[in-house]
Amino acid sequence: MVGPGALQRARRLCHWGPAVALAVVAVCSATAMADAALWYWPLDTAGGSVNFVMLLNWTVMILYNYFSAMFVGPGYVPLGWTPEKSQDCMYLQYCKVCQSYKAPRSHHCRKCNRCVMKMDHHCPWINNCCGYQNHASFTLFLLLAPLGCIHASFIFIMTMYTQLYNRISFGWSSVKIDMSAAKRDPRPIIPFGLSAFAASLFALGLALGTTIAVGMLFIIQMKVILTNKTSIESWIEEKAKDRIQYYQTGETFIFPYDMGSKWKNFRQVFTWSGIPEGDGLDWPVRDGCHQYSLTIEQLKQKADKRVRSVRYRAIEDYSGVCCPVTKGVKTFFTTPCTEEPRIALSKGDLILATRGLKHWMYGEKILISAADGGIRERGWFPRKCVEKYQCDSETDQPVDGEKKSK
Q1: pTM of this prediction?
Q2: Which of 14, 129, 266, 295 is deepest in the core (most CB within 10 A)?
Q3: Which residues of 242-253 are buried (b: 16+ CB within 10 A; e: fewer)?
Q4: What does it catalyze (predicted)?
C-alpha cells in the first residue's frame, strides 16, 4: 500500500523545477565519472580512485540535501493556531485560508496553500518553500552544488585537453601539465570520439552555468542567514524604512531577530543535530524588542498599503496569459519575471492596484459578489487594460513605484 505521504512526495517531483535540477545533476555527475574513469584518470591508479570517490561523494551529498530540502519541507503553522495569550491576537494578521493567525515570521504561500514558518521564499527548483525546517539543507545544497560542479569542470577540461593533446597543436609549450594520463599504455578501450567530446563540452557548459547561478544564490542566502533574516524579512525592513521616510514619523525600526553576532545568527539555522533551534513559532529577540515587533510593523505596512492603493476599472479584456501578444510589443517584452500570478480581466472589473511597473500593474480584483474584506484575486495585469476609477480621482495616491520613477 502506498501512503498519502508517498504520493505527496511523488507529486513534488512532477514539476519542471525538480526535473531540470535533477537532470543537470545527472548529466554533470555521469559525464564527469565517465570522463574520469575512461579517459583522464583511470581507476587503476590511487589518484584516479580517490578522484572517482570524491565525484561520487559530491553527488550523494548534493542529492541528500536536495531531497531533504524538498521532502522535509519548511514546516507549517498548525491549522487554527492562536497565540497563548488572547490579547496578543491584536498584533497578528489572520489567514482566512488556514483559519488561523499568522505566527511571527510566518507567511502564507499561495502555491503551498499553507502558512509557512519562517518563510524565505517558494523555490521552484525544489517545488517547495524554503523555511524554518529546511533552510539549512537548502543552503547546504546551494554550497555543495557549485563545489561539485567546479570539480566536474576540472575533469571535463582536463579530459578534453589530454585526449586532444596528440591530435591538435595548441602551441602551449610553456604550459606544464602532467600528461601521464594521456600517454598511458595501453590506450583506453573506448576511444574519445566526437560524441564524447560534444557530451563533455555540453556538461562543462552546464557545470559552469550552475556554478555561477547557484553560487550567487548561496551568497544571497548566507547574507540573510548571518543577519538572522529571511528574504521576505529583508524586504519588510526596506519597506519599513521607506514608510518612515515617506511619512516623516521619526520612528526607528530595529529588526528584532538579529542576535548581534554573526555566529549566533548562524547557529539559529545550522546546528550539530541538524534540527534548527526553537519550534518555529516563538523566537528569541534582541534587547529593546519583543516577540511582535516585526508583526506590528507588518500591520502598519498593510494599513499603509490600503491607504496608498488606487482603484482602477478595466477598459479591455485580458485573458491572464503571461506574455499577451495583443496588448502591444512593450507589454509583451516587459512582462514581470516572477512566478506571481496574472489575473484575467473583463471590461468593467474593479481592481485595487498596490504597485506597478511602467507597463504592468499588480493588484487585487474586487469580485462583484464579495463584500468588504471578501475574497479577492491578486496578480499582475497590463497597465493599458485599465484606467483610473474616476470616483476616486481626487483621493487616490500614486501607486508604489510611480512616485520614485518620476
Answers
A1: 0.82
A2: 129
A3: ebbeeeeeeeeb
A4: L-cysteinyl-[protein] + hexadecanoyl-CoA = S-hexadecanoyl-L-cysteinyl-[protein] + CoA
Selecting among 123, 129, 149, 385, the annotated active-site residue is: 123
Three cell numbers, residue 274: 541538524
For CATH 2.30.30.40, list the domain ranges present in the chain: 309-405
Q: What is the dihedral of CA 348, 349, 353, 356, to 10 degrees?
A: -70
For this structure, is 323 an active site residue? Answer: no
Residue 371 has pLDDT above 50, yes or no: no
Cell numbers for 350, please give them.
Answer: 474593479
* pLDDT tens digits, one per residue of 72-103: 999 999 999 999 999 999 999 999 889 999 99
Nearest Cα to Cα of residue 69 among 116, 143, 139: 139
CATH topology of domain 309-405: SH3 type barrels. (2.30.30)
Name the residue with higher pLDDT: 375 or 234: 234
> In which element (H, E) is residue 123 found?
strand 121-123
- Kindly write down the DSSP assignment for every residue of 304-334, as one continuous string: HHHHH-EEEEE-S-B---SS-STT-HHHHHT
pLDDT reading at 177 higher than 80: no
